[in-house]
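quick one, two chains, predict together pls
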Amino acid sequence: MWKLHHFALCPFSRKTRLALSEKGVAYDLERVYPWDATDEFYRKNPAARVPVLEDEAKRLVLVDSQAICEYFEETEDRTPLILGNALQRAEIRRLVALFDENFFADVTHPLLHEKMKKRLVLRATPDSGALRNAMKLAHEHLEYIDWLVGNRRWLAGAQMSLADFAAAAQISVADYLGGIDWAGHEEAHGWYRVMKSRPSFRPLLQEKMEGIPPPRHYADVNS
Amino acid sequence: MWKLHHFALCPFSRKTRLALSEKGVAYDLERVYPWDATDEFYRKNPAARVPVLEDEAKRLVLVDSQAICEYFEETEDRTPLILGNALQRAEIRRLVALFDENFFADVTHPLLHEKMKKRLVLRATPDSGALRNAMKLAHEHLEYIDWLVGNRRWLAGAQMSLADFAAAAQISVADYLGGIDWAGHEEAHGWYRVMKSRPSFRPLLQEKMEGIPPPRHYADVNS
């Protein structure tokens, strides 16, 4: 049985959980606090990051959300998420990288730093300028999602793909931390409501980070 | 004919150039300054980053170094770089991500910021504390490379792979900027000398960034 070392508000853990669930891969969860990783965890992943997926009986350890997703894409036929021809797959991977790297650096990481790490670890006051900037950049990303879903059925094309799950994973963490304002982003909002209502999303929306309650609308699939 | 929009000291452009050359894919180069990207470039890649690979005649645009490398892995049989079974491929992708993300964040990005961007764009003095920290973290990464090449023939296993090129691309930029001290890292140094002596590496070592001369040993494949 697979065990996923994860963290509730890690967008890369969330992306991996969504992909595994969509593909029907069963796994247990083990929570890791990234600021308090043990030597044992560090031995599994010298980068000291979640997600790490482990099968202790088979002595297998898979590290890095994209490496994990590509692994199951190659070994599980069910529900392809990096699908289509080579060009379509390149477009899916471009968008996954856009959300994993740019959205994370622009929006999710500053929100996690200001609203979670400063509260739980550093015991410091959030920087309101940094929060305003993250929310401004979130608007630019949501505008791009408006454009994508206005021109295509799903983010990367005619079919739902890993790009949708990578984007929704980032947005769900930003939304938990109060960083998403849907005003003026009807298309993106409609797409996100569809993502939220998938069975794979439900366990994520139920999960709480102690000391940081999500806003009321967060887990409501209708809002 | 492919045209690669790149930047001389961008490690992701370098990784892509190495992979394309190893696979025998011909391309022209077009230099983009990341701090001065045009609207036209932004339309090709909303993330406003190099590398971008374009075939104007075929109206194809590929964005993101890993998406480009995966594309040619799927479409060109020559010189597989993400090779082996699914587990070996997961190990290659884990290490690519380790160098693309961790080494870049720990070492290459701070060196580029302090030694290139501050000199050419911000006209500011480098922060010696940030430089010391980047070089300290470089030592930790080189130690891990020592361990990898002491236990395997190449970084990810018995065969040369994209992991070697991703790592060498990052190191080559850090080395250009004077951030690599090989003392105490004989294994890693031996591996890097082999990487440097490959024909695919030669054009990178010849290239100069105006205003920032590399140290004398940089392009010498024997040192």
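Chain A touches chain B through 24 residues (CB under 8 Å).
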